[in-house]
Amino acid sequence: MGAFFRVAWHVMRKDMTVEIRSREILFTTVLFAVSVVLIFSFAIVREGRAPDDVAAGILWVAISFAGTLAMGRTFERERYNDTLRALILAPADRPAIYMGKLLGLLLLMALVEIILLPLVGLLFSAPIFAYPIMLSMLLAAGTLGFAAVGTLFAAMLVRVRSRDTLLPVLLYPITIPVMIAGVRGTAALFQAAPDEPMARFWIGLLVFWDAIFVTLALWTFEPVMTE
Amino acid sequence: MRKLTTPFIALSAAMLLAAPWIINAAPYESTMGLVQKVFYFHFPSAILFLVSSVICGIHSFRFLFLKRQSADAWALSAAELGLLFGALTLVTGPLWARKAWGVWWVWDPRLTSSLLLFLIFAAYLMLRQYGGPGSDRLAAGMALFGMLNVPFIYVSVNVWRTLHPMTSVVPTLPTDMGIPLWFCFTAFTMLFIALLTLRATLEHQRARVEALYLAEDEG
Predict the structure, then answer these.
(1) A174 and B146 in contact by Cβ < 8 A?
(2) Domain contains B4
(3) Of A139, B127, B160, B198, which is most buried by a Cβ count within 10 Å?
(4) ipTM of this predicted complex?
């Protein structure tokens, strides 16, 4: 078990080192997420005011769009430098490689969310500090479920020609349960009369989905990545 | 199995031809009137829609983890039939909804998740179509995740408040409505089995022809 996490740690550190030197994915993803929020504000705002209860939806749509961009790019880098084969050939558990990639993606998405959340709170006057722990649990669990499937699919599609278009087509229908739980739970916290038990129910459901998605992804990564 | 497909198709075709008369003979439902009769087609296609996703998932599992090469053809056939029966479900559903709820579509959990499953089948087939070499394994991985959505769909109707009739409606139907329903259900199931077998056989033969061509090129 120790070896598993050591490999995962090394893969994540490698990705983070590359990312810290270029900051390419982080900057493009953040900018993209902000643009998504902006586009939504144009679509939704009437007479200078956004309707109530849209903040949760906008937040999660921005997270999922930006996340798709980030996961596509992390594997694009491996393909471009032809290092994916080296990674697969490394004498390490394949699931550990997946775990490292997933952790790196989670870290990136967490950074994006740290910038995105105050922005949405500010622009759509959402009470983001009312339930900080539950809100961060929702975000963490939702992002994990989304990224767990996304990392697997992005890895699968690396060798496929039309990967950029296929990734969202495959990813969104599968992760809709996670999105529903994330949006409904966040909306329960953002609404005028916050509904704590409701948010707790959705957090529980998200954790349940996370467990299933991560287990299945760890399990599937090995046979799918074998050439 | 292959010998059975012709009588199977003949019988299910005959049953489906007879179905309009049997459905016509069933009594009118008091509130829904004529539109209720779409239910005799909606229910079997919806069930087979879910069944095909389970078949697709199980065979994808066999293909991916147990390395059964022939399982892939079954998974593909099940996915194609899933798309077909899903389309039937999604067309007949709104016809019923228009009369019952006054709108063609509501964002109710069960409707939403059926649309979702339909999209998953479409994405699966798209991956196989445009994925290039090796896409069979990738699609199998995708199908495993798609199968997870089935219990989500089934449970959603009982857990959340929903407009869609409960899953307990069917056993409580009066007999004269139950007979045409189960008649249609049997006919659709037989059609499903026949099409599934035929399609999988075709796919197996295609794979064999491809292997033979490859062998000839090498030899």
Answers:
(1) yes
(2) no
(3) B127
(4) 0.84
